[in-house]
Amino acid sequence: MVDELKVKCPYHEDGCKETSTRGDIQDHVEKYCDYAEVQCPSEECHLLVPRKDIKRGCLHYPVTCVDCNLDLTEKELEAHRRKDCQQRKISCLDCEVELIRCDLNAHIEDCPEAILRCPGAPYGCDRAAKRKDLDFHIAICPIAVMGPFLKIQNDRLAAQELAVEHLQRKNEVLEGGLSSIQAILSNSSSDMEHAFPSYSASVLPELSPSLAASHTSEAPPFDSAIHHLLSLHESLREEVDRSSVALSELDAKTSMMVMNQDLRTKEDMAHTNAVVNSMRMQLQWLTSAMLQNQPRSVSGTSVAGSSTGPRGGGGSGGPGGAAGSGPQPIRRMSGTTPSISPAPFGERLHF
Predict the structure, then answer these.
(1) Which residues contact residue 68 at a Cβ distance below 8 angstroms, ignoring those fewer than 6 apart?
(2) Which string of DSSP letters, residue by residue, matches 244-279?
(3) What is the reported pLDDT for 201?
(4) Rounded-to-integer distance, Cα 217 and Cα 238, Å
(5) Checking DSSP bridges between strand 98-100 and strand 115-117, what pairing results, if any?
(6) Burial of 60 (0-12, 13-18, 19+ CB in 10 A)
(7) 3-state class of 349 per DSSP?
(8) Which of 38, 112, 191, 205 is surrounded by the most beta carbons within 10 Å?
(9) In which band, very low, low, confident or very high, does the pLDDT at 222 lie, cut at 50, 70 and 90?
(10) Rounded CA gap, 315 and 322, in Å?
(11) What is the largest CA-CA distance in the chain?
């Protein structure tokens, strides 16, 4: 199917006007195209020449353009004089005045014989005349007189079309954003119902009327599509504003709810810290009381042992007996520190 497409010859820019199917164009280039390049007929030259010039022999010897004195080969001379040589003399197609190519464009701008169309042609006038006769037609043509005003109106219409296209794209963006906002709100409402069921009954019903207003209201008839687009744009903007206000209220209520929960949590933590501090003070009091009672029992045992020893010595009738007959003073054990066993201490502490 692709090979049946009609295509131009690859050398159409050089002058070949052949048009054939895509499957046959290669055969045309290899066998029949006069502008296809083939091997130069000269045995000493290894360059290429067009097939139509093969009978002229080798065309790769240097020559000079007689018009611009440019040095080039014989093969390039024809194309140079036909397209590129700015000093070659040619004739104007309208007035047949002979002039060099570099001055042709300037001459065409002022040629009195050039055929021009009326300035009101884009707006309905089909008059075409020579430049020297066109001024008279422009003076009597009403469309040409109104041409500048019609051009201004066309420019304004083009600007309005661009503005309408811009508004349409903007409306599409806003509608897409609104749809995404509605999806986010619906997802957040479901999450709020699962996370905070006590607030869902009071907060979420306030959001639903504003979100559903655009779908339930019917648009009034409009004079033009532009008015309809403008009204749609304003309604979308109002809906976005309502959604923003609803989101702000929801955010404020959520923040207040989280703050209240944090306050309750902080109060519970403060109460727990107070209980722990009270238990710590009671534990310190019990520990200090036990440490104070432990040295007293140790000192009482040492006093009883010292009073028994002298009495036994008094029975032998020595001087110690006389000393033991009286009351002995209680000595403080300053050099010893009572050892506290952790096992009895642990056994006595019961809460």
Answers:
(1) 85, 86, 87, 88
(2) HHHHHHHHHHHHHHHHHHHHHHHHHHHHHHHHHHHH
(3) 52
(4) 13
(5) unpaired
(6) middle
(7) coil
(8) 38
(9) low
(10) 9
(11) 175
Dist. CA 287–CA 183, nearest whole Å: 65
Q: Which two tokens stand for residue 226?
A: 């532009």
For the chain, helix (H) and strand (E) counts, in that order, are: 10, 10
Instruction: Tell me the residue type at 185.
Output: L
The C-alpha atoms of residue 57 and residue 208 are separated, in whole angstroms, by 91
Element (H, E) at 89: strand 89-91
Taken as a whole, the chain contains a residue count of: 351
Average pLDDT over residues 204-224: 50
pLDDT tens profile 80-97: 877 788 878 888 877 878
- Beta-carbon contacts of 60 under 8 Å, excluding residues fewer than 6 positions away, are 40, 42, 45, 47, 49, 73, 74, 75
Distance separating alpha carbons of residues 234 and 174, to the nearest angstrom: 11
Q: For the segment 15-53, what is each residue's pLDDT rounded down to a tens digit?
A: 888 888 888 888 888 888 888 888 888 878 888 888 888
Closest CA to 287 of 334, 337, 346: 346
Q: End-to-end alpha-carbon separation of the chain, Å? A: 100
Token duo for residue 35: 């502008």
The pLDDT tens digits for 152-186 are 888 999 999 999 998 888 888 888 877 777 777 67
CB of 36 within 8 A of CB of 25?
no
Does this model's pTM top 0.90? no
